[in-house]
């Protein structure tokens, strides 16, 4: 089931790219860029550079069920952003069950730092980075948005001296609060609705006490502040895997804190909607245009 969800969502992204405007974009693809290593495993991303870049970058989190794979990257899914001049970084992270969510979030932070360290090389402004993803990829996008941190100034590795902050988020149907999942007090920290994803939560999810600590640690809602970057969530109100309540409570918390956040509800849609997603990626691109380039429609 974990692998099925992962494949299904990335297939939606492929469909989105192929059903977007038919105009092909002239771009250069750099494959298997190594942004880090752990336990002998290379962490990689592909970089898509449009012929006429606008100076901003979009990080696409290739994740579903906290599983990620380079083989799922498809240039068609990047077309919406490439057409507008964005350089696209398709990031592959370490997969569960070998790596758990806290370790996966470290991979994503490392990817942001790597991009910033190499911003001049890829022709992007390190202070104009947006992030997008769906489901687990949405969760990781919000994690970057709410938990970006300054670099360590005296780090031996110069990449670790860079900040892991992003400037804009636009994501799809993300988990936001594993301790209040669908309703107040409903625990989904590897149990309940998300019991089939338990390997992603690791052994800490074996006990109620452990879940309370871990659930708070990995839930983006507990890190919302007024300084959070502008955030857009698109979510179907018939989603049974990630209830729309997850988006609603996150956006409400953000607005209460004075941060800019918006929820677009897809009526009758479940955990993905291939006939609509292409249009919604355009909405994400509009959001990035407004907040990374100050271009508003």
TrEMBL record:
GO molecular function terms noted in the UniProt entry: hydrolase activity
Keywords: Hydrolase, Signal
One Pfam family of this chain: BD-FAE
Entries under InterPro entries matching the protein: AB_hydrolase_fold (IPR029058), BD-FAE-like_dom (IPR049492), GDXG_lipolytic_enzyme (IPR050300)
Lineage of the organism: Bacteria, Pseudomonadati, Verrucomicrobiota, Pedosphaerae, Pedosphaerales
Protein name: Alpha/beta hydrolase domain-containing protein
Residue span, BD-FAE-like domain: 45-252
UniProt keyword annotation of S-adenosyl-L-methionine present: no
KW Hydrolase (keyword) present: yes
Signal peptide feature range: 1-20
């Amino acid at each position: 089931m974990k692998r099925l969800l992962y494949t299904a969502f990335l297939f939606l992204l492929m469909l989105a790219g192929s059903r977007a405007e038919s105009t092909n974009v002239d771009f250069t693809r750099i494959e298997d860029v190594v942004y880090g290593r752990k336990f002998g495993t290379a962490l990689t991303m592909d970089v898509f550079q449009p012929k006429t870049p606008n100076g901003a970058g979009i990080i696409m989190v290739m994740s579903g069920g906290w599983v990620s794979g380079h083989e799922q990257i498809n240039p068609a899914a990047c077309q919406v952003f490439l057409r507008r001049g964005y350089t696209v970084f398709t990031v592959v992270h370490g997969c569960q069950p070998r790596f758990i969510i806290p370790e996966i979030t470290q991979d994503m932070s490392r990817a942001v730092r790597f991009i910033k360290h190499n911003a001049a090389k890829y022709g992007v402004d390190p202070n104009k980075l947006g992030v997008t993803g769906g489901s687990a990829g949405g969760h990781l996008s919000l994690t970057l948005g709410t938990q970006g941190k300054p670099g360590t100034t005296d780090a031996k590795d110069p990449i670790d001296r860079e900040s892991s902050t992003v400037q804009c988020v636009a994501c799809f149907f993300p988990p936001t609060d594993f301790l209040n999942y669908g309703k107040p007090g409903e625990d989904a920290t590897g149990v309940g609705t998300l019991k089939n994803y338990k390997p992603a939560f690791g052994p800490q999810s074996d006990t109620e006490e452990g879940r309370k600590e871990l659930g708070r640690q990995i839930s983006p809602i507990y890190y919302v502040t007024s300084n959070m970057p502008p955030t857009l969530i698109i979510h179907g109100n018939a989603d049974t895997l990630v209830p729309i309540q997850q988006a609603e409570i996150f956006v409400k918390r953000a607005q209460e804190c004075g941060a800019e956040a918006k929820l677009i509800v897809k009526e009758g849609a479940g955990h993905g909607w291939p006939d609509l997603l292409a249009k919604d990626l355009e909405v994400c691109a509009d959001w990035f245009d407004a907040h990374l380039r100050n271009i508003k429609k």
